[in-house]
Design brief:
The complex is a heterodimer of chains A (116) and B (155). With 116 residues, chain A is mostly helical. Chain A has a two-stranded antiparallel sheet. Chain A is elongated and about 60 Å long. Chain B has six helices and no strands. In chain B, helix 1 crosses helix 2 and helix 4 packs antiparallel against helix 6. The termini of chain B are far apart. The chains are: A mainly alpha (116), B mainly alpha (155). The interface between A and B is medium-sized, with 22 and 27 residues.
Chain lengths: 116, 155
C-alpha cells in the first residue's frame, strides 16, 4: 500500500509527473517536452517550471541528460525514474479506482431545481 | 527576443544554476519566442522559478535540505533582516528627526520624497522580517520536535 503522505503529493498536473510521462516515450529536449506535455495533458508549463523540475529530477537520478546538440540537451528516463513513474501512476490509479467504486455505489442525485 | 534580453532573464537564477542549465534555458526561450516577446506568464514563471532556485541555493528550500538546516538558514535570514532593519531604523531616527525645522519650505520637496522612500523601504523591510519569521518558524518547530534541541546544545 503506498505511503499516504506520498500519495497526497502526487497530482495529475504535477510537472515531475508530466515530464516523466513525456520521457516514457523517448528522450526529448526542453521545447519538445513543452509541446508534448501540452499535447497530451493540455498543460502549458512555463520555462522556469520546466527547468526547475528537470533539475530536481536529474538530481534525484530519475532522468539523465544525453549529449548536447547546440544549445539543446535531450533528457531520458532512467530505470529508477521508470520505477518512480510506475509508483506515481499506482497511487493515482488507487484514487481513480476508489472514485469509480464510490460513483458506482452512490445513488444518482437529481440536479437542484431540475426534474427527476 | 534578443540574446541580450534572454541573458537578462537568466539573471533571476543563481550563478551555479545558470552554469548548468542557463544555456539550455536560453535556447528554450529562443525557440519559444523566436523574434517575438516573452509573454507575461512566462516572465512571471521565470522570476518565481529563479527566486525558488536562489532559495534552494541558500539552503532555505529544497528536498535535500534537512529541517534543521532550513531552520538554521531561516533564523539566520531573520537575524540579518532584523539587524538591517534596526540599524536602518536607528539611522533614520537619528538623522531625520525634525528635519522640517532645518529645511526652508521652498526646498522640502526632495527631502520629503527621500523620507517617503525611507518609510516605504522600512515597510518592505518589516514585511521581509515577517516573511522570514513565517518561513522559519514552522521549520524551527519541526526541527525541535525531531530532537533538534540536543543538536543545538551539542558543542
Amino acid at each position: 500500500m503506498p505511503d499516504q503522505k506520498q500519495a497526497r503529493q502526487v497530482r495529475a498536473n504535477d510537472p515531475p509527473l508530466l515530464i516523466l510521462t513525456s520521457l516514457a516515450s523517448g528522450a526529448k529536449h526542453g521545447y519538445a517536452l513543452l509541446q508534448d506535455i501540452e499535447g497530451f495533458a493540455d498543460v502549458q508549463l512555463g520555462p522556469g517550471t520546466l527547468y526547475g523540475a528537470i533539475g530536481r529530477l536529474e538530481q534525484r537520478g530519475l532522468i539523465e541528460s544525453l549529449a548536447a546538440s547546440g544549445r539543446t540537451r535531450p533528457y531520458r528516463l532512467t530505470p529508477v525514474g521508470r520505477e518512480a513513474l510506475e509508483a506515481m501512476l499506482g497511487e493515482l490509479r488507487a484514487i481513480v479506482d476508489e472514485a469509480s467504486t464510490r460513483l458506482r455505489v452512490a445513488p444518482r442525485v437529481a440536479p437542484v431545481g431540475g426534474h427527476a | 527576443m534578443s540574446a541580450h534580453k534572454r541573458s537578462l532573464w537568466l539573471r533571476c537564477y543563481p550563478p551555479a544554476w545558470r552554469a548548468r542549465y542557463g544555456e539550455e534555458l536560453e535556447g528554450l526561450l529562443a525557440e519559444m519566442t523566436g523574434d517575438g516577446r516573452l509573454g507575461w506568464r512566462a516572465r512571471r514563471d521565470l522570476v518565481w522559478a529563479g527566486f525558488s532556485e536562489r532559495l534552494r541555493g541558500c539552503g532555505l528550500a529544497g528536498d535535500g535540505v534537512p529541517p534543521g538546516g532550513q531552520a538554521k538558514a531561516g533564523m539566520l535570514l531573520v537575524l540579518c533582516a532584523w539587524t538591517l532593519f534596526v540599524v536602518g531604523g536607528v539611522a533614520v531616527q537619528r538623522f531625520s528627526e525634525h528635519w522640517q525645522d532645518f529645511a526652508p519650505a521652498s526646498a522640502r520637496a526632495l527631502p520629503s520624497g527621500a523620507f517617503q522612500a525611507l518609510l516605504i523601504a522600512a515597510l518592505i523591510g518589516s514585511a521581509l522580517v515577517l516573511a522570514g519569521g513565517a518561513f522559519a518558524l514552522p521549520r524551527l518547530l519541526a526541527f525541535l520536535r525531531s530532537g533538534g534541541w540536543s543538536e543545538i546544545r551539542r558543542p
